[in-house]
Amino acid sequence: MGLVQRAIEASGIPTVSITLLREVTEKVRPPRALYLRWPFGHPLGEPFNVAQQLTILHDACEFLYTAQLGELLTLGYRWRRESYSIPAEWGR
Amino acid sequence: MPLSRKIVLARLFTRMPLLGRIWARTANIAASDGVPWTPMSKPLSESRICLITTGGLHLKSDKPFDMFDPEGDSSFRAIPATATRDDLTITHDYYDHADVDRDFNIVMPLDRIRELVAAGHLGGLTPTHYSFMGHIDGPHVATLEMEILPELVARLRTESPDFVFLTPT
Description:
heterodimer, A: alpha/beta, three-stranded parallel sheet, 3 strands, 36% helix, B: alpha/beta, two-stranded antiparallel ribbon, 7 strands, 17% strand
């Protein structure tokens, strides 16, 4: 997936990704990636947990503007041991 | 490696992520030189998003990914921005997608994005989003780089997203 991300960024479109395998991402070096130590198949968390999904999306959108070149940032959320609320900026 | 062994390994990695990490450390993954970079040009509320996943999602009416080729499948499927749960299915034997089957938003958050656009927090979404199958090995890596990615980039240019959000599985 990092290869896909690199190709898109190189074409002039900014990209941000989630990674669940830090070791692979360190080798492939995409422009901006957020690492979650979560089970495979769950980049935005658990089914129907809207606040959790929005939290990860919000972190990713923010990272588009704050990341340094090639930054791989670890998000510290523990799997199934956090309670999430809808990001304040996106509150309805 | 025979296909059945690969699928067993992939399922094992899903249950025991540590094994996956150990595999990743030893696997023959080419290290990249340099990092491409394009800065964001607009605020989020004016930016159009395109979603890309390697979760094996595709329209039920579309051709499934190839699960019989032990080297995987480097092709992608287009998913319209209007797709709903009932339109989509997953062809991907290399990870446990039971939770994605229940709620595809955990890999392709189309519902969340449509809500954010409706609320004015995001500028919009492109008419098309894309899904790969993720398992791409052997000669298919070159096919991906030489044929598939140029095709994807050409398609993206016609729909001009302001950024792309990518999710693995």
